[in-house]
Amino acid sequence: MHKILFVDPDLCTGCRSCEAICSLVHDGASNPRYSRITIETWGEMAVHIPMICQRCIDPVCEQVCPTKARKRDPKTGAVITDDAICVGCESCIYACPYAAPKVHPLTKKTITCDVCQGDPQCLGVCTTGALSYIPAECIAWKKRRHVGQSLAEQYRGILKRI
User: Fold this and answer.
1) Is residue 18 a contact partner of residue 125, using CB atoms and an 8 Å limit?
2) Is residue 152 predicted with pLDDT exceeding 90?
């Protein structure tokens, strides 16, 4: 049973600690350009969303890779790049609907979250709980609960105005 790195954007403050630890663990330097997780910020709405690989059932990034460098890790289920055969063509970047893969500035190869081989280090630095590592079958439940809570808050706001 594979686990998924789940993001709750309502809890993300945009502190970028996850980016810092990711780059430190993978490259030995605290540099967000080396991170496999990227915080996207929409300032006008004060929204921060950690962007990570969504581990599609049938990954388009894997299908479009001309060298077959994109593949699923059998141990963790993460969709990763095999650096030995990646040519840096960026096809996976353009194909991904979630903008998860990115080019590593030093290697010029694509990188995505590999969930630290099953022990995501970003969880330990996320003080708000915006990131959690849960079994894949729990994702639908978490999303339904999140949507339900959002709708309940909207209805409460409408009822207060009436």
Assistant:
1) yes
2) no
Instruction: Tell me whether residue 110 is in a domain.
Output: yes
Per the model's pLDDT, the better-predicted residue between 134 and 138 turns out to be 134
pLDDT digits (tens, 9 = 90+) for 16-36: 999 999 999 999 999 999 999
Instruction: Specify if 64 maps to a domain.
Output: yes
Distance from C-alpha of 145 to C-alpha of 148, rounded to nearest angstrom: 5
Q: Is 48 left (phi over 0), alpha (psi -120 to 50) or beta?
A: beta
- In a domain, residue 116? The reply is yes
* Residue 150 to residue 87: CA distance in whole angstroms: 43
Question: Quick one: the chain helix, strand, coil %, rounded to 5?
Answer: 40, 20, 45
User: For 86-110, how does the pLDDT look when each residue is reduced to its tens digit (9 = 90+)?
Assistant: 999 999 999 999 889 999 999 999 9
Q: Mean pLDDT throughout 3-27?
A: 93
Do the domain assignments include residue 29? yes
Domain CATH number, residue 61: 3.30.70.20
84, 98, 50, 102: CA torsion to nearest 10: 30
Total of domains in the chain: 1
Q: Which domain holds residue 10?
A: 3-135
